[in-house]
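Below sits the subject:

***
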Amino acid sequence: MTLNEKIIEIANAITIDDKRIIFIQNDGSMLLDVNSITFVRLVVGIEEYFNIEFDDDALDFSKFPTLNTLSEYIEKKLNLGEDFNITK
């Protein structure tokens, strides 16, 4: 499973008012369609799964307009290369 696939899996487990986080395909990148409350829940899920902590200045969802920008941030926090798979 890739990092993007895992983020989507975590996001799909989060529902707010019976709505899921939406990823919209746009020119080869997937846009995050979230509000601030949903983003915080996504961050908590990511932090718990990967055992990382988002920096305070990264808690602004407008800094992650696409799935790729979020994925790149997580990669930096995990200090991983681009070619890896998640096994858990």
